[in-house]
Amino acid sequence: MSISHLADLANPAACPRLVIKVGSSLLVGKDGVRRDWLETLVKEIAVAKARGQEVIVVSSGAIALGAATLGLDKGGRGSLADAQAAAAVGQIALSGLWAELLGAHGLTAAQLLLTLEDLEDRRRYLNVTATLTRLLDAGAVPVINENDSVATQEIRFGDNDRLAARVAQAARASAVLLLSDVDGLYDRNPADPAARLQSEVRGVTAEVHAMASAGSASGMGSGGMTSKLQAAEIAERAGIALAIVNGTHDAPMARALKQGIGTLFLPKRKAAARKAWLGGRLRLKGALVIDAGAGRALAQGSSLLAAGITGIEGAFQRGDAIAIRDAAGAVLAHGLSEYDAGECARLIGRHSREHAEILGYAPRSAVVHRDQLVLL
Ligand code: GLU
Q1: How far apart are CA 117 and CA 156, in angstroms?
Q2: How far apart are CA 223 and CA 247, in angstroms?
Q3: Contact 240, 269 (CB under 8 A)
Q4: Please, what is the average pLDDT of the chain?
Q5: DSSP state of 201
Q6: What's the pTM value of the predicted model, to 2 decimals?
Q7: How many Cβ atoms are within 10 Å of 200's Cβ, its own excluded?
């Protein structure tokens, strides 16, 4: 049974494994932690567990909480050093709170702090999968956040929306529920009375992105609708449903799922796990620019050959993940390069039969083999 409505997220047959992302502005108010609200959510998590669903929580709030404790301005987001210090202080309180409230329902909380690279490196990613699987088998509720205190500006998610989608992929979850401070995606700025909530989205198209650019960003967190759509794209590619619902109400899951208030992004197709991981990569080591003919060949399922490459960017190594772009700059695919950037530079525009002579050793069958390539 697959997911086709918001209500299915509460159905263990359709959604045996659910990732719930809780945003900073829900967890932390002007007067500190919104404990009463969180108790209502944790009760819903306990109900979900009791009906047979496995639940993973991705919880924001460390920076906001730590900033309040340390008296830092701008919610702790004034500088990277502030955010890192605030997160270090806030994370202890945050995980303690989850452990306490889940414990009150007889549930065991398990903390994981992840960096972007833990999920970008294939071996570390599989390790996260193994840990999450073991924790869920043992009945625990993983509570995950980005390891903000060690993540640096360039190498971080920065928002827990995409982290939640990547975690869902690693955990092979059925769905992601993003609890936000808006009801979902509107077709224009929600402040506009003519704005209409989109209850279902199939495919995050350019038109859908245009809706979000007019949307909201909440004060505390760093997400906004743009990062939620990026999360939806990662989930979509991995065959995982993703919902954006309003978490500001008490017992928010019941309201959103029973009454069907929110936006449900339905996956189009399920890519093989490895390809989904590759497509969801956020940091790439370089790029290959290709001509129109090569673009058409890729679209038909071919590998990328050197003859169709017109440009190379970055100092990538063999095996690194790279973007494949057209001349206009649109990213067509992600793939793992069979050659390093220097070798690619010697081969571009050259026919495969010339490669052995140019390289002086046995060439590979393609620059990016179709098995190591995912179209976006
Ligand atoms: N990891 C950040 C925190 O715990 C939250 C990121 C976000 O706002 O999504 O404060």
Answers
A1: 8
A2: 14
A3: no
A4: 90
A5: E
A6: 0.79
A7: 15
Tokens (6 digits) for 208: 């859908």
* CATH top class, domain 6-277: alpha beta
Distance CA 159, CA 146 (A): 8
**Position of tokens 């003919």?**
293
Helix, coil or strand: residue 260: coil
- Best residue for ligand 1 mutational test, from 72, 82, 115, 160 (most atoms within 8 Å of Cβ): 160
| Portions of the chain given CATH number 2.30.130.10 | 284-375
Tens of pLDDT along 321-369? 899 999 999 999 998 888 899 999 999 999 888 888 888 887 888 899 8
Residue 27: half-sphere exposure toward Cβ, Cα within 13 Å:
26
Q: How many residues does the chain have?
A: 376
Largest CA distance in the chain: 71
Compute the half-sphere exposure of residue 204: CA atoms within 13 Å on the CB side of its CA: 24
Task: Among 20, 26, 74, 145, name the best residue to mutate to test ligand 1's pocket (greatest count of ligand atoms within 8 A of Cβ).
Answer: 145
Q: Could you give the CA distance from residue 94 to residue 102 in angstroms, rounded to a whole number?
A: 12
**CATH dotted code for 284-375:** 2.30.130.10
| Range(s) within the chain of domains with CATH label 3.40.1160.10 | 6-277
